[in-house]
Automatic annotation (TrEMBL), chains A, B:
Reported modifications of this chain: Transiently phosphorylated on a His residue during the reaction cycle. Phosphorylation strongly increases the affinity for substrates and increases the rate of nicotinate D-ribonucleotide production. Dephosphorylation regenerates the low-affinity form of the enzyme, leading to product release.
Pfam families documented for this protein: NAPRTase_C, NAPRTase_N, QRPTase_C
Matches recorded under SUPFAM superfamilies: Nicotinate/Quinolinate PRTase C-terminal domain-like (SSF51690), Nicotinate/Quinolinate PRTase N-terminal domain-like (SSF54675)
Pathway of action: Cofactor biosynthesis; NAD(+) biosynthesis; nicotinate D-ribonucleotide from nicotinate: step 1/1
The protein's name in its UniProt record: Nicotinate phosphoribosyltransferase
Record-annotated Nicotinate phosphoribosyltransferase C-terminal domain positions: 373-429
Similarity comment: Belongs to the NAPRTase family.
Domain of life (superkingdom): Bacteria
Length: 447, 447
């Protein structure tokens, strides 16, 4: 579990001030993405499980409290409040694995103001990373057109926690396996991996390396590009002749060079040797665009290993995600800063479908009933997770597959869809915004 | 400490094969960046501390071993070896906070092949992230021209571990403080932060919010852009009149809008009210380019809060970092794959300076003595850290400041320097490469 100190200092100074002032009425905060990046037609919500686990278990240890006290910034009132902190609020959220669009809440926290404020940083940190990662991985999976995608990215993901969470998010999005053992252990993900170039290099002689490896792991994938890719494939053919019926190698892996032409040539060499059932696995700097390009050129590739680009969401390494106060003490709240006028109040999202295809979303006030399927539902009540709010990872993955299947084809594709998928605002919510803006302007210009 | 399972499956399958074959001679692996990204004139080495701590403490728990056994992939020999694993190798490295260039080893591991192979994934994971982060932060600090930069990025950094490590790397690179309390506690970093928009919104009335906050935290920074930035500044002026000598506010923070014109206007309003000592703090989607632009337009900004762009190194979210076998059993090793011919053998880097300014680096064979200052030194011997290989974080930060001061001005600047800083290869190393390539080609074409 994360330390309670994984937060921004200002969350604590604000809570200190709220407590001093007695501001502990109910507040609602909404976690959402302000704008979709140009290269994302949708986002795949992910990270709710960690968000809820955090809210259920967040405590301040005596060591953490002592350190906070040592800063000499906080009131005894705050330190005492933190010592007894338990999250007592409600949470409404869209299930993990649900496609969402700009301005749609991924989750809403309803709790006494100091509690709802305190948890901001960690909730964003986790939901942001995991939604970012699932959204990227969904594109790679889409590009692979049903071929397995294996996550190879842990070495260049941003630290240990990202290594874990991104592997999980990729699984939600449909990635087939991960090279990351810790993620395999923690989440029960299928793990995959065989050899690196260093293995071949340590032997010098490539055929000797293949021979030794296959003795230990007969049903393996051999990496063939250490010296010369097609020479490497010929060594595999040679090994097959040597071993006869004992040859059980499942695939060769190409990790560099012109993968279209190498895959064609490798396939030809293998087929000519009667090794039709040896598959071709491609890796090496791949992303969704490159996977799509390879398949558009009919490269006979059976599976893809994708690393860094998916692991750090290289083209879009961050989302414009915010956690905003939308209601306090029963009044809608918003911000008027340049270019950032928001929708006040708690919300619901209705997704309207025709023949199983999503046609538009409508952002509505919480409690409004409109046509379509409501996406947010309550997952936590008074600090406790609802009984049906603990889907298994496989259920989440199945949910993602089904929900992605409801998206219009052009929204799932890699290229930006124009016009974007329509997200409209209900008349009720628009009216509420006008009212809140009017009240606010009156307050601001009052003498 | 990281779990021993934070690794790629193939490290373990390769080690299993090495053990089966009896390949446990000494190997040398080199960790380096193949190419500098277009927008990086140099990288700032970071992450060695975590790499060494990992090598000193890496153990496999019985729970981890039981899980590995449950995969039914590994030999009893491997599981037994893992159970008794202790890293017994040597490490040579450039100190944290040293600028490095493409192909220059950040660290070299010299150990029995299975040991050196096993640790690959975690070493890259940590050195990659921290070098990436320090390199980005150094650019932001450079752009700020001596003004303090505060790290605000934890909420959109990739997970908890990145939150910690990036804050540390930013400190190494010269960032002044962080909003991240956990990083503050763990590393003793100065922490900073006061209020978010939600604080002002919860009050509705902005002046009431400022008044309440200042009562609790008199020497604070007030966020003035929730509704209208210059109106917010006028409220601060009003509060100063109310409080008279009790007014101790240190700064106003501008977080949106046209920061050049808002900073000028805010400065004018404050000065006109006799509040010359109230500083202007700017934040909101800043990166090094925007900081440079603001200062080029003479925006009267005293300090910067920089978040996401620095926290995820948004323009360059990953480096082409590799950990390559360069020597086995006394023989230089390399890879010939397309576009990836490497330099074999262990190395040293000599940095030649004139009048305190670095003029060129020379990549040499380990043991060569050439003009200039050698950058790599031994930091671990037989699994134990050398006595002088535990600098404090403040020493590392001071080292970075000094080393950055030795770089040519054009290399420190934000724009790509053409031609790039020269990194040459010593005749000794070139000769070794030719010899290894010749040997390898002979082996490859032997009958």
């Amino acid at each position: 579990m994360a330390s309670a100190l994984l937060t921004d200092l200002y969350e604590l100074t604000m809570v200190d001030a709220y407590l001093t002032e007695g501001l502990h009425d109910e507040a609602a905060f909404s976690l959402f993405v302000r704008r979709l990046p140009a290269r994302r037609n949708f986002l795949l919500a992910c990270g709710l499980e960690d968000a809820l686990a955090y809210l259920e278990t967040l405590r301040f240890s005596s060591e953490e409290l002592a350190w906070l006290e040592s800063l000499r910034r906080f009131s005894p009132r705050l330190l005492d409040w933190l010592e007894h902190f338990r999250f007592t609020g409600d949470v409404h959220a869209v299930p993990e694995g649900t496609p969402v669009f700009a301005e749609e809440p991924l989750l809403e926290v309803v709790a006494p103001l100091p509690e709802a404020q305190l948890v901001e940083t960690y909730l964003i940190n986790q939901v942001h990373l995991q939604t970012l990662a699932a959204s990227k991985a969904a594109r790679v999976v889409e590009a692979a057109q049903g071929r397995p995608v294996v996550d190879f990215g842990v070495r260049r993901m941003h630290g240990v926690d990202a290594g874990l969470k991104v592997a999980r998010a990729a699984h939600v999005a449909g990635v087939s396996a991960t090279s990351n053992l810790l993620a395999g252990q923690r989440y029960g993900l299928p793990v995959a991996g065989t050899m690196a170039h260093s293995y071949v290099q340590a032997h010098g002689d490539e055929l000797a390396a293949f021979r030794a490896y296959v003795r230990r792991f007969p049903e393996t994938t051999l990496l063939v590009d250490t010296y010369d890719t097609l020479e490497g494939v010929r060594k595999v053919v040679e090994l097959a002749r040597e071993l006869g019926p004992d040859f059980q190698v499942r695939a060769v892996r190409l990790d560099s060079g012109d993968l279209v032409s190498l895959a064609h040539s490798a396939r030809w060499l293998l087929d000519a040797a009667g090794l039709e059932r040896v598959q071709i696995f491609a890796s090496g700097g791949l992303d969704e665009d490159e996977v799509a390009r390879l398949l558009a050129h009919h490269a006979p590739i059976d599976a893809f290993g994708v690393g860094t680009a998916m692991g750090v969401s290289a083209d879009v390494p961050a989302l414009d995600m915010a956690y905003k106060l939308v209601e306090y003490a029963g009044h809608g709240r918003l911000k008027l800063s340049t270019g950032k006028v928001l929708l006040p109040g708690r919300k619901q999202v209705f997704r309207e479908e025709e023949d199983g295809v999503a046609r538009r979303d409508v952002l509505a006030r919480h409690g409004e009933v409109l046509p379509g399927r409501p996406l947010l539902r309550q997952v936590m009540h008074v600090g406790r997770r609802m009984e049906d709010a603990s889907p298994t990872l496989e259920e989440i993955r199945a949910h993602a597959r089904e929900e992605l299947g409801h998206l219009p084809l052009e929204v799932r594709q890699l290229e930006p869809v124009r016009p974007p998928y329509p997200v409209e605002v209900s008349p009720g919510l628009l009216a509420e915004r006008e009212q809140v803006v009017a009240e606010l302007r009156e307050e601001l210009h009052a003498p």
